[in-house]
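Long-time lurker. I teach an intro course on protein structure, and each term I like to show students one example going from raw sequence to a predicted 3D structure in token notation. This year I'd like something fresh instead of my usual example. Would anyone be willing to generate the tokens for the chain below so I can use it in lecture? Attribution to the forum is fine with me.
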Amino acid sequence: MTSSNRGQSWSTLDKDLGRISRVEYATAYVARPLVGTGIALAFIVLAGLLAALFFGQKPGNYVIVAAAVFGAYMAINIGANDVANNMGPAVGANALTMGGAIVIAALFESAGALLAGGDVVSTISKGIIAPEGMASTEIFVWAMMAALISSALWVNLATWIGAPVSTTHSVVGGVMGAGIAAAGFGAVNWATMGTIAASWVISPVLGGAIAAGFLAFIKARIIYRDDKIAAARTWVPVLIAIMSGTFATYLALKGLKRIVDIDMATALMVGLAVAALAYALSAPLIRRQSVGLENRNKSLKTLFGLPLVISAALLSFAHGANDVANAVGPLAAIVHATQFGEFAANVQIPQWVMVIGACGISFGLFLFGPKLIRMVGSQITKLNPMRAFCVALSAAITVIVASWLGLPVSSTHIAVGGVFGVGFFREWHMERRLRNSAKTKPEVKRLAPEERRRRKLVRRSHFLTIVAAWVVTVPAAALMSGAIFLVLSGLTD
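-- Reply from a regular --
Happy to contribute to a lecture. Here you go:
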């Protein structure tokens, strides 16, 4: 073979190898979305196998195995959707990277569920369905199975369209729909449902108002001062103390049920003590941290970064302690009814059920969480550490106020409402400054209405999508659950 032929053959080989490498890259790109789905399916199958090994191969135990499979599926969806509300603001404010947020959330959600998760859960989601309305244990089991499947499917659909919804409200809708299908409309406690419906409005409005109030305070007392750093030395330790005291009260009320039962007055005393300690520790720390900082807003972001990360971690711990039990409630109810042949208003949550919930949340967050984290953190409105800190603080305060008032609220609605509150406050504040400048400086050119609409600081498309998803969560989950119950009961007849 001549040298020219050899050169031509090598050139042809290089081209072929280049085509093969491009095919490999294309295959990897196309298969990337399937990796997460494959890992999720493997976890779901593993949960079913563990339940089968734990309970044996008796015919009646296959119901528990199926419930474990759907419970794992539900937990994955909680991680993909619900946890974004705690970590989204911190990521959107660039206080945490996406990887750091996922690691912190997975650790603290799991710790909250396993260490401080409630021992007892209401199997009928806070008295929505009267237990005596169920004709038999078998009907009760199928109703809880339908609620579990429908709520998981709804949260999965909401995650796919990019809408953060309430897991608790999804379970509430699922239980209501299955209860109506099993025992009629008279089985539903409509007064309780009315209170829950009222929380759809109260939760986001209260969360948004509190977040906007704190942002207004920060602007007035720190950002718009001539010496921003001196103002920050005075007020940032106060805000950290409020944050610490609030979370201490929150965790004392919601996260320590397994250890000790604490009333509101005792929880507030705990919060005050922690707030005083936090102020004593943070004041000298902020003073040292602020040395040499320039007198501008960018320097203030440095001072709020660490408190924001801590607040996001504490929110995740409290969410794990509080909401995971509600999500695995139907699974715990099925296990109890199948094992003991009876159903009750409240049952113990087996530890293996909480493990499925905690691990499933971690998998869901790791595999599918970034989409909703980006949505909450950066696609609704632009956040910085000060604004994100206001959102986290409002979430904890709103839950405490709601507990005091006896209102069932959603952590999802509160956190996202806080983001909306911050964004709408910034819009209102910008409009006010434009009006004032037009009065004091008539020579300044006014913006056209179209330009003002273009400069809106909250994306209206996301706002409408999220609010619509909130409104339809309970009825959609109820309709799906009722249909699934009829199918399940029809198959067993």
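Some talking points for your students: Residues 32-492 form one domain. The first strand starts at residue 120 and ends at 122.
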